[in-house]
Amino acid sequence: MGSKKRESSSKQESALENGEDKQKLNVSSENADVEPSKKRMKKEKKKKDIELPEVENMDEADALPASSNAHRAPLNSMERKKHRKLKDKVRHSGEGQKIDSGAEKMEVEPKNDGNESGGTSSSGGGLLPKFHIGVFKELAAADASVREAAAKTLAVELRQVQNAYDKLENKDEVEDKSKLEAEKDDGLNNCAPSVRYAVRRLIRGVSSSREVRFLISIADDFIEFFACARQGFALGLTMLVATVRSVKLESLLKLITSLLEVSSSMKGQEVKDCLLGRLFAYGALARSGKLTEEWKSDNNSVLIKEFTKCLIDLAAKKRYLQEPAVTILLEIVGKLPEEALLEHILEAPGLQEWLEGATEAGNPDALLLALKIQEKVPIDHKFNKLLPSPFSKSALFATDYLSTIASCLKESTFCQPRVHSVWPVLISYLLPDVIQDADSASGPILSKKHKKSRKSSSADEDMEKNLVSFCEIIIQGSLLTSSHDRKKLALDVLLLLLPKLPASYVHVILSYKVVQGLMDVLSTKDSWLYKVAQHFLKELSDWVVNDDTRRVEVIMALQKHSNGKFDCITRSKTVKGLMSDFKTEPGCILFIESLVTMFLDEDQSSEEPSDQSQTTDDNSEIGSIEDKDAAGTLGTAEFLKSWVVESLPAVQKHLKLEQDSAKFRVEKEVLKFLAVQGLFSSSLGTEVTSFELQETFRWPKSVIPSALSHMCIEQLQLLLSNAQKGEGPHAVTSGVEAKDLGSYFMRFLGILYNIPSVSLSRALNSDDEKAFKKLQSMESQLSKEERKCTTTTDASKIHALRYLLIQLLLQIILCPGEFFEAASEVVMCCKKVFASSVLESSGEDEPEEDGAPELMDVLVDTMLSLLPQSSAPLRSAIEQVFKCFCKDITDDGLHRMLRVVKKDLKPARHHNSDSDDDDAEDDLLGLEEAEESDEAETGETADSDQQTDESEAVVGVHAVTAELPDASDDESDEGMDDDAMFRMDTYLARIFREKKNQAGGETAHSQLVLFKLRVLSLLELYLHENPGNEQLGQRIWGIIQKKILKAKEYPKGETVSVAILEPLLEKCLKLAAKPFKRKKSASNPSKKKQSASWSRHRLINSLARSSTFWILKIIDASNFSESELQKVCDILQNILVDYFDSKKSQMKCEFLKEIFRRRPWIGKQLFGFLLEKCSCAKSQFRQVEALDLVTEVLKSHSSATEKTSEQFLKSHVPKLSNLIKHLVTNMPEKQARRAGVRKFCGKVFQMLATFKLSSSFVDALEEDGCAACQSQFGDTFLALKKQV
Questions:
Q1: What is the pTM of this model?
Q2: Weakest mean pLDDT among 6-20, 324-338, 1149-1163
Q3: Which residues contact 553 (CB under 8 A, 6 or more apart)?
Q4: 272 half-sphere exposure, CB direction, 13 A CA radius
Q5: Which of 110, 400, 676, 883 is the most exposed, having the fewest neighbouring CB atoms within 10 Å of its CB?
Q6: Burial class (CB in 10 A: 0-12, 13-18, 19+), 1044
């Protein structure tokens, strides 16, 4: 009976609770001697299943009667021991759950009384406002806004409850029925029962951790409740204590100590939860303002000292509690007045001892506390060794003091990845907020100009001195030389310095050791610090994004301490990216000035060169030194200067200015530096002033090496070439010199050349000096003539010639004794081109003769003579001149260019042949190609008989040449020795003579190939400007075919890269499959135009097929891996997909058959794919046509060894049977196609019978396939079946 009664009572209570709030946790029984209900027993059993049974807490013995355990079964010793362990393990989880039970009872009782009697209950439920217990659940929500709203609701409701409780005359009416967990001596006797319960529950709640959440999770409500319990309960405690004045500070301190006491039986997470709970509870008291209120009410209160002592004791327990405990203490320091700070905080027991041992123990939090207190109250004498006495900024960053606190700062790494709070405080002393450079691109030059005036002040000097001391002692001396964690901390601290750092102090933080450390880390991707260094560089780049002054300082620091190799060593593009982002003229000018200063000042090079900085890499595009013997010709200091030289032209290369005048001014600054350092030298000191230019020019104290001077001239040529390309259409009416960099250079050159104390850095011989002056004079005359021009065409011609003269002038200085003849010829051509003008004539020029060659022939011959060994800027100038004059080129000039393309290196043959070459050069298109050797090409025996389309494509050329007599001997110049060739063509003779002097002739051959490519680029320009010359295009095609595609020599060996051949092969195959398209614009094109278009299409198609064979020959001869060869097959497979599926594809089956015949390995790789596509081809015509491809593959493998062929055919029998089954069941209607199918099937049957694969083939056909084959082939198929 007793059992049933207890069960019934429990069920009734449970039903009442579910009716009140379905989402609340089940409450415990109210009666003292009642056993748990079945529902509660099931819950306990479920908790035991997850190894967290419901255990009573020792601190909550008063919450439930002691007799509640009366009916439990007796436990043996092992069970009691295990029970105690589990009891300690879930102590706090049990507390939280029983709090809910007691709280629900408090809410339920008034409703019971109210519902039953309708009046004031004996428990006081009708006397006090209702307190919604559900806010505790919302305090643990993951959403911060929900937690804040719950904390406000809790504070408001409990304040109303407390106000109503204070107004009660007889408080015993609610006191007797609401003991709950409140103890008689908790110090909250003046608080309402709900307030007492809430305070205790909030204090226990701050010890709830995330780990407890998952361990005791039973339902979704528990998971949500414990999600953010610690944060939410701390917020609720803060607002409750700040709102309800009846809660005394003394009582709170006692409750925190008693409820969150760490017992000896606790271990691991339990200890951590209690300690963190006390920390959060103390933080709630600090933020509530209760301590300030306590001091105002009683200046002699000891509670502030006790609170401080509790925090210090807590900080001493665990390292992770130290910083947050000091943070709480600092919050109190900020709220209390100075008197309370001096009398209570600093006089707290244990504080002075804790501060005194900070430097020895390495305690950064003690240093932080001392600095913050000193900031509010100047009492440095209280901190002994921790702060300098007397305290000042200069003393704070003195070398001796920084060495003392270095141990404290090094130990601040325990809070990583977060940076300790002491660092921002130190930085605020080091760099005040008021000193900052303006972050704008509006005036970087102004910040540079005022740098000296700022640095002249004593405050700025002290700040720089302090920053240098801080970086040397702390960053470089303590952190960078220590562990990886401290290296990371060093970079993090430098990032903290950036927002307040003036640009003029960048060199202090980016010192030699910092830059070297970055290079060491970034040079190895496997390093733990690699991502840290990358993040530092990214933040550094973001810091300079809007300030060119900062950008300049960062670039100069990185390159100075890496000897110009930062990008090379780190394998990054940091410096390159920074240099390419200059967008303003002032920023560029500032950068140029800094580069010039680095070049001229001898002390700019790094004083501590490292072995690692000597490594070179051509990864950086801007400022890279590519294959220039940096280790030998250029030393460490010269390497940095060479980076300066190469970086200067790169500034304007990436610069995009809206105004051309701004870009021109930047180019002028670069030009002046390169011209002064590369072309001239001073005989009187290192400075020369030009009164005409009103500028002073400087040279380094040490003599510039010849290699560096050579580099300056090359960069000057490149600068002028880029300026010519970027000019666009030439303006002939406006002042040319205003924005003409070439005119400015020649004027600048003339002025410096005439200064007595300045001379050319390289002495010129008489021939070079004569040519130099001729070029100067002619350029000056052409410049005047250009201003007078009224037509754009003439002005463009003169402009192109002027830049050619300028490039030749620089080339004479660069290569003495090599270009004076070509320069004289170009000057002579300039005079003849503009003979009608008022160009001054020289008496030294030879008079014209009646038999003199055409002017354009001389100009072409001169330009060709310059091509073999010219620099890229000179070639660009030649191309510009050729483009302007190509419409006037004669057939004889074109013939000379074509003959260069055809020329081969052959051994000299001497015989008495006085034939005149001019007799064989009557007509451009009437010249017959040199006869080729009759030797057959290795591996290409069927080239001539298979390529019928090629012969059709060049039928026009053969038709023209067939009418002419054989002049191959004269044309090919086989009868001339090298000396005769030298007299006729100096540009070819130079290469031939070099071949004679060098063993093997490899250098001569490579030069000849390069020469041919340069001439072909000129011919390309000619065809672009003269698109109607079809015969010239055919002639070039013939040369390419004979000299390249059908030549015995072709690229081979390890130098051949499949990555280069793949796109070329794909392009050739697409051109071979490209259909012929008629122009839509011409409604009725003439037959002549149609014929020309068709001939051009066949020419391109033939060239594409020949190029495909040539590329495959190179691939076949190279030793590529299987994966690389598979990529080649994939390209061909994609072409076959278009061949089968697209009607637009005009790929010839014969062409594909020839590929499979020449390269059997391709057919073998694609055979299975071919069988599948033939079975499902969209077009029946393509399907039958492709059977020839299958036959060709089978034929190529039938010639192999019998075993290999059998294995190959056996592996494809299923697909073959599927294809034949498809063909015989869908026989074509046209007779020709049916004949093709029968022919194919007959060959397959024959091969199957030969290799005895008939059985597997017939089995794969199945019955319906066999019946179809028998009906179509009759006896032929029956004979095959008999072999089964």
A1: 0.67
A2: 6-20
A3: 503, 504, 506, 507
A4: 8
A5: 400
A6: middle
